[in-house]
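Hi X.,

You mentioned you wanted examples for the new student's onboarding notes, showing what a folding record looks like when two proteins sit in one file. Here is a clean example. The first protein comes first, with its sequence line followed by its structure tokens.
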Amino acid sequence: MDQVAVVIGGGQTLGAYLCEGLAEAGYRVAIADLNIQNARRVADTINSRYGEGRAAGFEADATKEASVVALAAAVDETFGRSDLLLYSAGVARAAPITEFGLSDFDLSLQVNLVGYFLCAREFSKLMIRDGIKGRIIQINSKSGKVGSKHNSGYSAAKFGGVGLTQSLALDLAEYGITVHSLMLGNLLKSPMFQSLLPQYAEKLGIEPEEVEQHYIDKVPLKRGCDYQDVLNVLLFYASDKAAYCTGQSVNITGGQVMF
């Protein structure tokens, strides 16, 4: 496969897992992250497993226009094409609305929404230039479909991502470029979720060690969302098998959200 996947936020956790899964599926992978050491480490792992030149790490701040423009140019120079853009950068801050700081709210919007816009804009230009019927996929959340208590900034940004995905899909349909959001359930073992356990425990009035089970009990399939669940759906919507689908917000929630 000659196709190139560009993963924003690919230097750790879910993003790194998806980079390795895409490499295993045959993609060459451009790994962009705010932390260049993390990006290079993931790239080195992929190259050691699948051969030199299969991956490269890039430093980028998705919230800064000049950085995203430079990233697109660097990926283009290194790989010569972009077939799949995966926006996996994200951040969450938890607090009651009466205590939610403007800086935290703005950070949520910048990382979860503005960065997605900038990256989609710049990499769609490359796809259009080369006549590539590419794929743009955003890692979103069930919080982009249902409000989330004490997570107003995150939920607002994720709801915005759904609207942006639909608008991008309409803009890019004439070029054969499809756009989707993957609406994840709770990644209970992820560092992001684990970091919020004290706040969630306070919100729910339970002990931190009880939080995971509380969220599992909400899921009809009775488990959290795993990284592999995300990769499975990602590979389908990245493939030609999903060529007639665009603008969708795809639930990966174990039945917790069904619309």
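Then the second protein repeats the pattern, sequence line and then tokens:
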Amino acid sequence: MQLQQTVKSFIRPGEQGGYVAECLEVSVVTQGETLDEVVKNLQEALALHLEGEDPGDFGLVSHPAILVTFELQPRYA
């Protein structure tokens, strides 16, 4: 089995404002008020989730990159 180089994640607007980030391969979900904050929180949450674990158990290489897809609503004038 080939190990994944990236963890795929998705960031979308939160229902109450801010943003929600969710990883697709591992059970990590976090939120933040700004895009910068939610990305920082995503990095920290993923690091904590994998801390003390073998990333290979999740099909990941050691120290995988995070691939982020944003869902943004267009703003009309």
